[in-house]
Amino acid sequence: MALVSFKNTILHNLVSKPKTRRVEKEYPAGTRGHVENDMDLCVLCGLCSIKCPTHAITVDKAAKTWSIKPMSCIQCRCCVDNCPKKSLSMGLRFQEPGEEKVTKTFKLSDKAIAEQEALMKAAKERAAAAAAAKAAQAAQAGGAAPAQAKPAAPAQTPAKPAETPAAKPEDK
Ligand code: SF4
Ligand code: SF4
To answer: Cα separation of 32 and 107, whole Å?
Structure first.
């Protein structure tokens, strides 16, 4: 009898719909899910790291990497609001739970590295040109100064001997 009842339950479960409802993963607008960084836009300025109240973000300029500890992030959005390049955003998906405090590291894209190297090269060239122009100006000013100083000195020197001989005959 029990075997018949068990078979009936199995058959019923095979053909019937689930008793639970499927939960649709729809996040409302403004959800602060998790921080995402577009590594094509990031310039590794480090401002997000400075502004983060929980020190969840680390920027390594030498290694050209940007890292975040998702378990330390409190989704305050401070880094997103202060990123000058707007490379940060709050992704809608919530942070996945985990057993370990992992650090997620992202490397700057090749495109971003090439752009930054080009910008640095242009800045160095501008600085060199400005320094050369300043040196040329200084050289011009240095060459003009002695030409003005020379005529002034002889004009004062002959005046003194002219006064001294004139005073002596009057005293006698
Ligand atoms: S503030 Fe923005 S551009 Fe600067 S390091 Fe952070 S993510 Fe990159
Ligand atoms: S959202 Fe807030 S806590 Fe999370 S990384 Fe950005 S500044 Fe830090």
So the answer is: 24
